[in-house]
Write the structure tokens for this entry.
Amino acid sequence: MPIIRALLSLAATVALLWALNRPFGNVPAFGPLLSPFTGFWQNAEMPLPTADREITLGGTRQPVTVVYDDLGVPHVFAQNDYDIYFAQGYVTAKDRLWQMEFQTHAAAGRVSELVGERAIELDKFNRRLGMGYGAEVAEKAMNADPVSREIVTAYCAGINAWISSLKPAQYPIEYKLLGYAPEAWTPLKCALLLKQMSNTLATGADDFRMENVLKKYGPAITADLFPDYPVRESPIIPAGTPWNFTPLKTPSATQSAPATGKTPTLTSTRATQCWPEKSAGKNPEPEKLLSGLSTVGNSWPARNPDIGSNNWAVGPQKSATGYPILANDPHLTLSLPSIWYQIQLVSPTMNACGASLPGSPGVIIGFNKEIAWGVTNVGADVLDFYAITFKDNARREYWHDGKWKPVTRRIERIKVKGKPDVMDTVLYTHHGPVAYNTGAKPFRANFPTGHAVRWIAHDPSNEVKCYQILNRARNYADYRKALAYYAAPAQNFVYADVHKDIAISPNGRYPLKWKDQGKFTLDGSNPAHDWQGWIPADHNPIVKNPGLNFVSSANQFSTDPTYPYYLNWQFAPSERGRRINQRLATMQKATVDSLRMLQNDNFNLRASETLPTLFKILQTQTLNPAQQAALQTLKRWNLKNDVNEVGPTIFVEWNAQFMDAVWKDEFFVADSIPMKFPTFDRTMALIERDPSAKWFDNVKTPAKETLPDVLTASFKSALDSLTKKHGPMNAKTWGWAAHKSTDIKHLVPGLDAFSAMDVDMGGGTGIVNATTETTGPSWRMVVALGPMPKAYGVYPGGQSGNPGSPLYKNMIETWRTGQLNELIYLQTLTDKHPRLRGKLILK
């Protein structure tokens, strides 16, 4: 009997070992992950060593010394520019290799290689968007310039030096979890990373939603409800700023295609009549409502209002030191490993310090001894959709400019983990790739069911050159020279220097368009609808040393309507920008700390401006005791979205319910027929100017609702929703931070153990401290210029991408509480600082 039990135990052990070392479909073998020799045990890290270390590498031209501080920030000293970028690549990969590679896999449409068939549609989407194509074009542009080519070559060599030093036991834990190995880094990967940023910041679009609005309601109502400039605004370039250039002639939208050859029958891209309105209590017939609207593009991501940023600079007149002070906090999706990586780069030609993007050379947001700079997203309309008419089902030719033109076919091979490769053919017109949406029906002859994507990220650009110049800039002229090389995604570059100049420019490469070109989908057959060239770089909006003695941006409109070129018809809501400008206008003797506190400002300007009006309209006599108590809580609220306040929870939910109640009945037909809602700014203008407007009536009910009816019903509905979610009103569960629940998640969905969940934070959408459930200030920085710059910064995470490191998320608490760390700025290798630790010498 003991022998039988032993044999059974041995058999079970063998079976378990066999099972643990075999992959199951998309799931990698679990045994290697548990191995004490190669598994996750090998990923535990000790605190930073204080002793100096030397490593002999192939690749550097001269020895490089890296001084680490107590936060794990590398201060890199090289004797030539090639080595500075080689070392940057090396130390960044040392801390962030998996993150860098995963993001480029995503951009290239290669996630299926890592996680299997569940990512196929994501990979198809990125390939149909032309991410890989755009990266290839950008790579050629970088390589065409000898300076940027050497920078990228050196950076890649440094990354590969780190990769080649690794054994499987030393791979970051995510490689082990997903069951793959790092591959060699190439310049194409650097380009892919920059395209990923364009994807994040410059692909949200409402063209199809607006097209459906136009088809349903016609041009007059559409123009009225979706105006090209908001009621309340404080533009980035102050109103009245003169334009010191002679503008180019604006293209015409009326040019027609020449009648060359036989013109096919085209489906109109514009409705000539409005849909029937509600009358006599009857709604339009559903089949009639659906017949004219587009189902193509219904899944295209809309603009995310929470992806944006703040930046500003105060001039010497407002500064306590008599020198400018600059601040920046880009708002992006909060993630671990963190988006940014702190670094200082010192060579004979530069001494730049700040935040870099893992996978891209140089300092993206930062300062040197003479200047400081920062960026926020512009939100220009640089992605348009063109309805394409194919000659036949073969889709080898498309109609444009009165003739049939050849289609270019790009074959995309998608490798799928555990499954056969998937082949996808992407059609390219001169506009760009034709994006087929998930579930789209096959094309029919002469019917424009496909739309080509015209996107700025498909054009040649060399952002590496921009940052190469900017990192070494010494004055305003250098700043302007650097910006001339920057294309996409368009950014508001704020600037300050020791010469006491400040400036800001909504800068990028902008297509020369007629007004509202791209507000709706465009006719791919008409050459008048093509992009007609480019706005000259020296015509981009800019202001230097304005009379306000400060410059700022918060993703609002770039200019007032006097700017002679069309950039977009919509930008981010103006509350953040207006609040920042209110604070800066009254600020005197500004310090680093006063600008830090402004970054953490939780005041809700929307609530401040609108609650008095809403309280007057609310039918308070219809509220029950619990609702009356909630109303009193809202009235006593200090108008700040602070952590423990209940007021913002009620207001934000009421705001959302009210907007749905006003617009959803008329601007939501079906999930597959999306339409954009009018903005809150336009809704408030309607309340103030036309409170009896027909839009307040719910067309889906036989009764005729009024504004007070809708406002009161939405208030009650908001309280019902909050009660259902949190129980009866109380300070703990209805507190703003508990309700909002900010999460900083790992890049792999579901890895909550590697995430920071339920971070106690105030702020919110439209607040200067723009921390939402999943987005927020991804890097906060304040730089005081002077004889020697003093800089401070923090991001929600840590320098290491290894969850087993004490430097993985060690800065989250500093970030959460609104504090900043000193950014140590060394001048020489002999500089002393109590926070410096060991040196790493690369030979």
User: Anything to note?
Assistant: The radius of gyration is 28 Å. Residues 276 and 284 are 6 Å apart (CA to CA).
